[in-house]
Design brief:
Blueprint: H1 3-7, E1 15-19, E2 22-25, H2 31-47, E3 51-63, E4 68-78, E5 95-99, H3 106-119, E6 123-128, E7 133-138, E8 141-146, E9 150-154, E10 157-160, H4 161-167
Parallel strand pairs: 5-6
Antiparallel strand pairs: 1-2, 3-4, 4-5, 6-7, 7-8, 9-10
Length: 175
């Protein structure tokens, strides 16, 4: 696949990402995943006004040739850095939030973490509902938090995973 295929809508909807020109197909996520995505985006939007908070497999264009197109759950980028134009972001955002799904394999997650880091994403927050853990990756390294610990998303905006999961009575069994 090429970026022109993406812009023209020729990539089938069941293809969630394109890595080095090859398609990656993933199952749609569950209700908990969607709810967490919505809640985290809301937490950010109510506190930070000068940013775009984009949700729902936001296309990140890491490379045009070969096409390397990642889909992110939540992307946050300063409004002065990006004008919404209906295309994939081709500059690294300030924050990417990913919510792990039961079908995500460790190699898939590690490759995606490294792709984001190599591309220049300033901050990554990976949420693992089943394990009740959050991993934060910055230029300073990687830190793991338990679900009871407060985790900074961006600009002093924080959350506790277990508090969110408790709100819906979820024991973290899946997304």
């Amino acid at each position: 696949w090429t970026y022109e295929d993406y812009l023209a809508g020729r990539i089938p909807p069941e293809v969630s990402e394109v890595i080095d020109g090859k398609e990656v197909r993933k199952m749609p996520t569950g209700d908990l995943h969607g709810w967490l995505e919505s809640e985290i985006a809301y937490i950010i939007r109510r506190s930070l006004k000068d940013v775009w908070v984009l949700v729902g497999e936001v296309a990140l264009l890491l490379s045009r040739t070969p096409l390397h197109l990642r889909g992110a759950d939540i992307v946050v980028i300063e409004r002065k850095q990006w004008k919404l134009k209906g295309e994939a972001l081709d500059i690294p955002p300030d924050l990417v939030v990913e919510i792990a799904s039961p079908d995500d394999t460790l190699p898939y997650i590690l490759r995606k973490m490294n792709d984001y880091k190599d591309w220049g994403v300033k901050r990554q927050v990976w949420i693992f509902p089943k394990d009740r853990e959050v991993v934060v990756i910055t230029s300073e390294g990687l830190k793991t938090y338990s679900g009871d610990e407060e985790v900074e998303l961006l600009g002093g905006v924080k959350f506790k995973l277990n508090a969110l999961l408790k709100e819906v009575g979820n024991e973290g069994s899946g997304t």
